Amino acid sequence: MWAGAAMWPIAATRITFFDHLTFRTAYTYAHYTFRGESAFSGNFLPGQPRHLLRAELPYQHPCGFWASPFLDWSPAEYFADGANTAPNDAYAVLGLKAGYDWRPLGLFFEANNLANKLCSASVQVDSGHPRFYERANGRSFYGGARWHF
Distances from the Cα of 141 to the Cαs of 1, 109, 110, 144, in angstroms? Predict the structure, then answer.
């Protein structure tokens, strides 16, 4: 059995500057622990970062061009197993999205993990094999087209 103190966004903001520039964030705090008569009593629930922040600064030009640098950040380690013996390191990943929209068609491009940081953005909780960590993509780029309905 597990119990949690909270899992909710502490802060979700959207602030617009100069009509075309917006700052958006979402921060989540999660403090879950096992309780009861189990061997894991008092341990943190595995696979759940305690703090998680997503921030971006999108710019939208009236002609249709847009760009948005972003940050995904888990500032503290969290555990991949119920015994709390396999910590997953803190990580921060920077990226950039950009594109051009001609309604209804749009083109986009994204560059992710610009610093090419070696990290594990997800884990296999209590894996039967001691392979808890799933390596995040290194520096990566992709793009495409979309149709707006």
Answer: 42, 7, 6, 11
